[in-house]
Amino acid sequence: MEQLPGVSSVKSLVVVFCFIHLSLALQCLNDKEPCVNNATCLTFKNGTEYCRCAPGFLGEYCHHKDPCHPGFCLNGGNCSVLMSAGVPVPGSATCSCPLAYIGPHCQTPQNSTCYPNNPCANKGVCTLLTLNKSKCECPRGWTGEKCEHEDSCLSSPCANRGLCSSQSAGSYTCSCPPGYTGPRCLNDTDECVATPSTCQNEGLCVNTPGSYKCTCTPGFTGRHCESSYIPCSPSPCLNGGTCHQSSDISYSCHCLPGFNGTNCEHNIDDCPGHQCANGGTCMDGVNTYNCQCPPEWTGQHCTEDVDECRLQPNTCQNGGTCSNLFGSYVCVCVNGWSGPDCSENIDDCATASCTPGSTCIDRVASFVCLCPYGKTGLLCHRDDACISNPCREGSQCDTNPISGMFNCNCPPGYVGNTCNSDRDECSISEKEKL
Ligand SMILES: *[C@@H]1O[C@H](CO)[C@@H](O)[C@H](O)[C@H]1NC(C)=O
Ligand SMILES: *[C@@H]1O[C@H](CO)[C@@H](O)[C@H](O)[C@H]1NC(C)=O
Ligand SMILES: *[C@@H]1O[C@H](CO)[C@@H](O)[C@H](O)[C@H]1NC(C)=O
Ligand SMILES: *[C@@H]1O[C@H](CO)[C@@H](O)[C@H](O)[C@H]1NC(C)=O
Ligand SMILES: *[C@@H]1O[C@H](CO)[C@@H](O)[C@H](O)[C@H]1NC(C)=O
Ligand SMILES: *[C@@H]1O[C@H](CO)[C@@H](O)[C@H](O)[C@H]1NC(C)=O
Ligand SMILES: *[C@@H]1O[C@H](CO)[C@@H](O)[C@H](O)[C@H]1NC(C)=O
């Protein structure tokens, strides 16, 4: 135990050194300083501050010219520079050039299938894959390997989600989805005229746009009426209902409580005649219902009182005293607060008598008057005696904030109410010697 104070003082010494070290790190004075050369001073998420340099500058404070200034590498080349102890090595900037450009600044195009002769017509952009392999990126309206065709798909001529492909000489072809035909996929295929007929077992075929429907004769089912119908296989009854076959082609569903309808598809509304009290809202469930109660009530049917005074956080704020009532509560607020939960700060400025021309600041159960120049006092109703410069030149005048009176702080060698009396230092030194 005796050792601890010593240990902790060593620790605090270490902490102090750490702070000194940290305070040597870069610190933003505003959004620019101490960074230079138009850099921005920013803060990382972890609190460390740094300079984000403008293009063309480097270094902790952006105080070094970046040899990789914009425009050093041309044609999309990437510039890199050697750094030594945070300082760029002069003349060490190098460019890494994209395909087909060479030279220290990537300034010289190499002969390739793109250069000097651009094979892409109509302002197509030639992109090299290798030196002797390229592709054309065509502007809107042009297509083809060398952008030589007008793009006849530009007007989206294929209807009904047909896929357009542009041909030479301004023509196009549409590849149509099932159900549509014709050069622009505009013609609906009538599936019902097909032989053998689309719907089997004497099912009735109805053509629809892009498709068709089969209405099956009794005893058959399936999209094409291809299967024989077995009433309860599979069961059409939903929500756990049980299927009973009543003839070769009919069935009935026996539903679980809370459901009805031919296939038990309907959840019966249990809310009619509900018992949610005190403004509670009924929410239908399965064969039951729940009550959503207003905040003052709880319990299955919203008939139990909520004791608001026992809730966390306290219902009555700012030190108010809470009293629970059946179905509500009251707060008795402490001085300066009001409102049903004592959260409203009474505007003391509404009744304050700050002198006209001053600014009233509302506090809790009080107010402060901010006085204009030349006024003082709690209500700014007094004149500031210092305004008339009563103190001798070279002394400091202080105003008493209550009375408005002045008090002069005299420079060495002067005394008196207004510091006007020259002090007799000789007599003082005599006294002090005694
Ligand atoms: C600094 O940056 C601003 C905006 O980015 C620009 O308008 C201004 O010209 C720059 N000044 C210098 C000295 O680079
Ligand atoms: C703060 O974060 C930056 C970047 O995420 C990192 O470079 C720096 O080292 C971090 N500083 C500290 C003190 O963790
Ligand atoms: C330049 O750098 C970017 C990003 O790192 C990279 O995607 C690109 O391929 C580089 N270009 C060259 C020519 O090295
Ligand atoms: C590049 O092509 C031009 C003309 O097409 C030719 O004069 C020149 O010699 C070629 N350069 C190289 C390095 O092949
Ligand atoms: C493509 O260029 C490479 C080297 O530049 C060469 O070896 C190859 O034969 C060329 N291929 C064609 C098809 O010209
Ligand atoms: C498409 O429909 C039009 C008009 O209904 C008709 O004149 C044309 O012959 C049809 N084309 C095909 C390929 O069915
Ligand atoms: C389901 O039952 C409710 C109430 O019992 C009734 O009003 C409703 O018409 C029934 N619905 C069906 C589809 O049978």
Automatic annotation (TrEMBL):
Alphabetical list of Gene3D superfamilies matching this protein: Laminin
High-level lineage: Eukaryota, Metazoa, Chordata, Craniata, Vertebrata
Name of one Pfam family that matches: hEGF
Protein name listed in UniProt: EGF-like domain-containing protein
SUPFAM superfamilies: EGF/Laminin
All residue ranges annotated as the EGF-like domain in the record: 24-63, 64-107, 110-148, 149-186, 188-226, 228-265, 267-303, 305-343, 345-381, 382-420
Species in which this protein is naturally found: Champsocephalus esox
UniProt-listed CDD domains: EGF_CA
A single GO BP: cell differentiation
Similarity comment: Belongs to the NOTCH family.
Protein keywords: Developmental protein, Differentiation, Disulfide bond, EGF-like domain, Glycoprotein, Receptor, Repeat, Signal
